[in-house]
Amino acid sequence: MATVNQQLYRPILTAVGSDCRRHVTTRFLPVPRRNVTTRLRPILSLEVGKEVASAPSTVNMEELVGFLYEDLPHLFDDQGIDKTAYDERVKFRDPITKHDTISGYLFNIAFLKNIFTPQFQLHWAKQTGPYEITTRWTMVMKFIPLPWKPELVFTGLSIMEVNPETNKFCSHLDLWDSIKNNDYFSLEGLVDVFKQLRIYKTPDLETPKYQILKRTANYEVRNYEPFIVVETIGDKLSGSSGFNNVAGYIFGKNSTMEKIPMTTPVFTQTTDTQLSSDVSVQIVIPSGKDLSSLPMPNEEKVNLKKLEGGFAAAVKFSGKPTEDVVQAKENELRSSLSKDGLRAKKGCMLARYNDPGRTWNFIMRNEVIIWLEDFSLD
User: What is the pTM of this model?
Assistant: First the structure.
């Protein structure tokens, strides 16, 4: 209890609203001295300058985490997300989009579904604050309106706030791994979108299966499934020596004269730190086949081999993949991985997706790939 100029002052509690919570502050108004003891007795326990304790919340955060694991995989399918789990005035933000209602949020989902045919994968969800859940995800989209149907990849975090009064989500903030400025409206985010609209010609052939775990401004991290290759010795990463030998195998030069469907890309790989020796040329065998069922190569220098897959970092580029270009891309990628604390294995792979005799250089799709010792999405 404080006295100033012979007047008694009492604390007055004021609720200050926010999007999802209420905070309590304290101010003071004069109280007449008459009947002071009787009128102040109910508030004598309040301590000046301290917040009043709020009622215990009944929010079951563990249950909401489990709900997101079940609900978010339906983000872009016909079932869709459960809109009853969100406040009507839910706030959605990503670097280039914002909505302030559940109807706007659902409109954005429908727009992406119809224009981009997105594929969404939830990696994990966990509680990161008293009323906060964070998720990590990958979204891969094809922009259908453009003739070459470019693939756009976004990975990142979603920070979702829960309203303790309604037990519903009241805020959804997306952060992209590929940019630094994630505030709305981010020019960096817009540029990131447009960069991915460029033309890359990828043949409509089977490729090794992989999952994109993270895409940064400089590379993407993939998790490859095991796959089988037919390989032989090459001369250099950008060379073509040995290609006719492995191509001959899939065109029928094998023990049963079986013709095997063509795949993409053609790999040249080395485990040499200088990238100048121990080079192999590889063509991927279609999935669904195993080593025991494949015909044997007719040539001794051609072998079948199973690669166990695993984590790898890849950088995409166009143009003619000369030896100098490939080595420069490998140096840049290895430097980026080291800066980000990722442990890279020796050597690298060059992936060439196109027939150089039938494809313009500026739309060729090439990749330099480096295998990683390990990777975690913590």
Answer: 0.84
